[in-house]
Batch of 2 targets.
Target 1
Amino acid sequence: MLAQEVNERLTQVGPGTPMGTLLRRYWFPVAATSELEEHPTKGVRLLGEDLVLYKDRSGTYGLVDWACAHRRLNLLYGIPEENGLRCPYHGWLYDETGQCLEQPAEPPDSTFKERVQLKSYPVTQLGGLLFAYLGPQPAPLVPHWEPMVREHTARDVGWAVVPCNWLQIMENSLDPTHTEWLHRYFSHYAIERLGKGKDDPSFWRNAPPVVPHVKIGFDVFDYGIVKRRVLQGDTEDHPNWKYGHPIVFPNMLHDRGGNGFQIRVPMDDTHTLYLWYQCHDTDPSEPPQRDEEVPTYTVPLPGVDLQGRPIWSLLDHNAGQDNMAWMSQGPVSQRWLEKLGESDRGLIIYRRLLDQQINVAEDGGDPMNVFRDPATNVSIALPSEGMAEDKSWQAGLQRANGVSTGSTGKYSVINREAAQRKGVLVAEKPESAPIPAMAGTHLVR
Ligand code: FES
Ligand SMILES: [Fe+2]
């Protein structure tokens, strides 16, 4: 249980809030590089601020206040120029610092434009993602986590705007036993509701058995928290315990096996941009994928149909199951009503770490994972089960034909292409539910 004030301290992300102060010390991905190739502007909500990301015709990225300083037209409709973004209403032109460069309808000798500047923030590109930094200067380095600088890999990025606070999403990553229930036992029930057998070939993934956890453990390490588990029948020599599975502070889950991240970007107190960032092995003889080519795909959100019944085809895979859990806790989980047990100690450790790091940031120090020395930011390796030499334990994560069935395997562009090449049935991609899985949706008519 958490007092209501503490819940607010950990969940509110706007300017001037304790958590907002901590989170403003980090770079956050706000788009895939390829998105701005397809369209040169994108509306961005980040840490409670509304902004417009753009790429001008000389290739410079900018992130500026959404509203033109003149009469507040939304710059999402802005026209990229050789240098800067032009408001379509009366032609005011801004550069990436937000400085107004031109005001065509003002007298030619006017110096008015020199006194007009939009709020702006720095943008940087890494590993197929565009990162923004809303914090105090000097900005730290964008962390070079190993999957973001890996060579001979093809990346893709799934995304969804999950209508709930970021913290309940992160807490799920410190909760090993939910996999046994939500991703196994409930998964079997979802297959039953779909009227399929567990080994029905038309089902995207095989149904792994429900194996009880016999032991869980957590260690705070340099970059976050490692969670460990021993499943029934295994020992502490199993990679699940020996290497564990890291949560990268403050907002990422390393993918099982170490091939990417699930990144939770707090948009505001009740919305989270969720990125499934994945590296897929490629043949070294293939030309390398360019960052501008990294494909994106949307991940449909679970919910109920117009009769108020769960849509089970959106719940037969990890991403849908997790999204349902987070969204159905409500926009901001009411933690003062919780009853935490011994199995919840991972999230208690994480909440404590957040609280400590808020204090560090509020005192002007650099919190965990703020990097300033390029020498220590070349390629930051993380411990994970994927380090184990014997990979046979991973077989349960995949179908025998080698197609990934991980959290968004059903939707991933590269995974679907691989499945098609191998002749695996690729299910139609469903739309998001008409009524999202928010707490109380059963009352909606
Ligand atoms: S509102 Fe943007 S130029 Fe007038
Ligand atoms: Fe999960």
Target 2
Amino acid sequence: MKMTFRWFGSTDDSVTLEQIRQIPGMTGIVGALFDVPVGEVWPIEKIAKLKKEVEDAGLELEIIESVNIHDDIKIGLPTRDKYIENYSQTIRNLAQYGIKVICYNFMPVFDWTRTNLAKELADKSTVLSYEQGVVDKIDPTAMLETFKSSANGFSLPGWEPERMATLKDLFSKYEGLTEDTLFDNLKYFLEGVIPTCIECDVKLAIHPDDPPWPIFGLPRIVKNEADLERIVGLVDSPYNGLTLCSGCLGANPSNDIPKLIRRFGAMGRIHFAHVRNIYIHENGDFDESSHLSCDGSLDLFEIMKAYHDIGFTGYIRPDHGRMIWGEKARPGYGLYDRALGVTYLNGLWEAIGKMAQVK
Ligand SMILES: [Mn+2]
């Protein structure tokens, strides 16, 4: 595996490349261009600048999270062909600079949803949390306001103000869209871009829905094993792959994460691993916990063992962390707790590897 760390760029991240470089075992950055509007081609010059910046810091830039999909593609509007062509051109541009994997999601309107970005735990650390009762009652616009006021001044990927300004309009465009139509639209998108992926040797890796069930009446199609199976079958190519996010899929206790890793890993379809833990309450609400198995509901040892057993050589990142030690950062994306997560995952990996040799 290649240990990586998500970074939002020199102007919009409290964490520096130098700090990331000093985390033991760190090899690369999970980067993106956050100032290119969704649907537009990522310009060569901006990609080149990011690549140089990361490499000058002694790190690699081989994976992008995310190149977002324009809503017209997800809705299936006639204008989608133009956006699919733009996406293909972005793939070509990224390939020129050594990008190997592109993470994306296919969630209507919202990339991810939480009801509290700073829930205080018993140890006074704060975490992102989700309460279904709040989502059931709240208007999405009101949720956006809550997010803005508790994001410590940082932008939140997927909740960009420009896009959210048209929230009502977006919701009306998605009206009547079913899971089946969304699958059809994903297939249309994949059939459009996978030939370019093959030509450029860039693998796509779809991120699961967060949380993995429908919210605000919008359909979701990356929720469970059956969905993942359907997705990898839409275009039968290793370039049509997955980002296996343990914290997202794991929010539904019937998703057996180690089983999913073994199954789709054996098919060579997992290109990116997001590994984090969550604590699921009795009513199904959840908090993002520390990575340690005993702090959450997921067994991180079993998850890392599954990756080890499939001989995983792809990219991995600690995903989110708690806010600890007085750090002020983008919620979920501070330095300290994610660095602790990396060290824990590396520790599990080393132990599992050595134990396997003893046998
Ligand atoms: Mn994730």
